[in-house]
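README: folding subset

This subset contains proteins for which both the sequence and a predicted structure token string are available. Records are stored as plain text. Below is the entry for Alpha-lytic protease prodomain-containing protein (495 residues), shown exactly as it appears on disk.
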Amino acid sequence: MLRRRTVTAGCALAISALTLMTAPAIAEREPAGATGTSALKPPPGMVEAMQRDLDITAEQAESRLLNEARLGGVEVQVRKKLTGTFAGSWLSGPTSATLTVATTDASAASAITGSGVQAKVVARTLGALDAAKQTLDQAAAQAPASTPVWYVDVRTNSVVVLSSQPAEAESFIAASGVDRAAVRVEQSSERPQTYYDVRGGDAYYIGSSRCSVGFSVTRGTQGGFVSAGHCGSTGSSTSGFNRVAQGSFQGSSFPTNDYSWIAVNTNWTPQPWVNNGSGGNVNVSGSTVAVEGASICRSGSTTGWHCGTVQQRNTSVTYSQGTVYEVTRTSVCAEPGDSGGSFISGSQAQGVTSGGSGNCSSGGTTYFQPVNEILSVYGLTLRTSGTTPPPTGCSGSQQSFTGSLTSGASAYQPNNSYYQSTVSGTHTGCLDGPNGVDFDLYLQQWNGSAWVNVASGTSSGPDETVSYSGAAGYYRYRVHAYSGSGSYTLGLSRP
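--- output ---
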């Protein structure tokens, strides 16, 4: 079903009317002849994420971005005109098509009201609300644990205090000295907390001892990471690089083996990354074993990022605590505190640092416990960032684009934008999707106010072709995952 965009323009109060855009809202550049606020192309994936998280269509997401850009400019002008009587503003509706402006000046309401803009007369200015919140801020040290959040709410013209124990919140408010009439208490179970990433090579602590994260893993819905067994015993608690409580050892083996896995709490998010020692990350895409002689690098919290080569697999090494079997010997250096850290070859996880000799000043030899054995023993899944390569069909097209879709999602090509055809002629599109899915292809044309489907391929399989003889204008392709997920290739040719 075709959905029209909602575009809002203009506001009174001595503000010049804004001109409606007559070209598509999402563009690599604004087409010649279009006026008004320039609509920049959203970052890749933004429209899809808005569809998913705001429960709106792609067309509504595009309209929302356009309206927000345009009405944002209107809001700035209105705020300047109202000065000391301004009391806040907000957008509403699935496409952000309505801007409400609050003011304490009833005489200004009629001037504010216009196409897509409405006024609301309230008791307190935004400055008064900000001052009330600042009074609470100054008393923040006395806020009870049950009352973790307060904010200015322009929609209700009040300062809202969230608390699981309203009586405790009332005591906090009274002690702060704030104007009670400006404050509302809402019962809430919110318990805000900070979040941290689990990343290979970063430090973690077991009491006063420090080791390094190997690789992020999951077991079912539980996230965590693997590391060396000599770093801690089963049940031992860990804290992260920042000394924030992190998790506990779920399994540990040393000597004979030298591996462990640690489950983390909800403050921590396991990521498919390894710290590269210079402010960036190396993505982990799998755990294919590197051939002897291959280059390999290690990340650890003491010495950072160092590289060498794989020397021998299936090595036995004896430490003072006993012998560890079936480790891999490398020419990479390491030092105390690097234990448990990531060994990676290219983007392939290899293992966790066990021990060695020498140091990173004069050089050394280091051994790692292969990661695939750890995954197998504990039933873990390696967190990876890799995706299945897109199909390679649709050769012979003028242009080719690739992407990946989850079931029910859509993508727009070329590059979440459109193309312009300056002459009449035939447009052809070829979609090559992965086996076992049902992907559909739609060619859409801009009719001056909305995108209209002019050709489609909607068979029950992954591959589609469309052909359309059309006039000059703006066109784009919509690739839709009717069922199934995976990568695709789209080839297109145009007049």
